[in-house]
TrEMBL record:
Residues 476-496 are annotated as: Disordered. Gene3D superfamilies: Glycogen Phosphorylase B. Keywords: Glycosyltransferase, Transferase. This is Glycosyltransferase.
Amino acid sequence: MRKTSARTPKTAEGERVLILSAGVGSGHNSAAAAVQQACAARADVAEVQVLDVLQVSSVLYRALLNKGYFVLVEGLPWLIDWGYDISDRPFRRRGPMDPWTRMNSVPVIDAIKRFRPTAIVCTHFLPAQLLASLLLRGVTNARTAVVTTDYDFQGLSLTGAFHALFLAREEGRVELMALGLPSDRVAAPGIPIASQLTAAPSRDATEPPMLLISAGASGGDYAAAVVRQTLHMRSPFTATVVCGRNDALRQRIEHLVAPAGDRYRVLGFTTEMPQLLRRADLFVGKPGGLSVSECMAAGLPMVMVNPIPGQEVRNGDYLLEQGAAIRCNTSATIGWKIDEVLREPGRLQQMQAAAQRTGRPEAAADVLSRLLEGPFRPLVVTRAAQKTILSASEERVVATDLSGPSALVRLIDSATGSTVALLQAAELEDLQKRYGAPDGGLVLRRSQAFRSLRWEERRLLRAILRQDDTLSVRVQRSRPHRMVPQSASTGPRLPS
């Protein structure tokens, strides 16, 4: 991942980093801001720009993707769950972008051409899919990273061309390698969060535990129900309730907790959230990707309530595995469950230690370093290879153990050792006829006959040759995956 090509396109002034996000919720933009902060700490970054791709899209497109999502979360959560599952298989959709999305991407493409970035970081799958198309068309030569912002890997984040794919946890990386992705292009540094330059306030063991209750993006009745349940707790505690920009909810909760005196502190929008996370003993709220990552980095265990089906439920599953959270499936038991944690000797401290082990506070800096110091050439996954990966995912097959025409083959840059292409064995035969070398490798060439090549072959060569006329690559065929039992009919299978 950290090997660098001899041809590294850096301007004399330094790196120009463009960070592309999409404001569906706040998490993707928060991750973008964290990477922007990491850029400021590097001397080799001359300029950085952050762009929310929805903000330059049409009003209708933005409303359907952003507001429409939260309407479904509130009214039809089962549909969100179904949509998450149906789109989870990698490369389920392998064709070009639909006309409406392509039309709304024009301002983003114009912004890329104006800024002339040397590196692009995508914190949402929408710009990631667009950048894959631009890399294959030769519109940009920038190193491109795709950053996931939830603990569970979601198939929409996997595109046909990228330089680096950054996941939140090692299990996602293992999954992608089993499906055929090369290990030198996939890493698991964690979810990028803003770093804190001030010292963390120490938790006073003599004071009662402090609960930090977050109303979440929508707040409303559920947030009020959570606070109401804490009024019935028997354990000593204090609580800070953060209502964000929802003034009506803040006033409602202030009225609700007034009889409790100074036990509760109710806030609207606040810039003190990082300090509050580090001062609190237990977080009560939704397990959104950035909220979870910030809590873990602060060593703050969670009481998870009202998760959005799909990504938030899976975030919660991971924290439960780590011992860093409990989940409340109904608001009626929230007070009782928190009481159980606070009254059991040593349990809160064990959960705090688990959260500390799970946290990745340096993820943003790690993402940036791995991208800027990584390969110059992108990894291209051909349409045929995408089909193999999708089939392996649907059949729960370890793709690297497949044989025959649909087996996966890697092309390795002979100079740097980085994987530059993932293709089917059948495609390799065609390349060997045209570009075969005596040592069994290939010498890819940009020739006068370039335009006579098939469309898929042109895309492959254009993306990985970059400004070079030739590129020597060696061929690496699939290796056996010895840890998985064999099946006589369909090959080795992943666990159900």
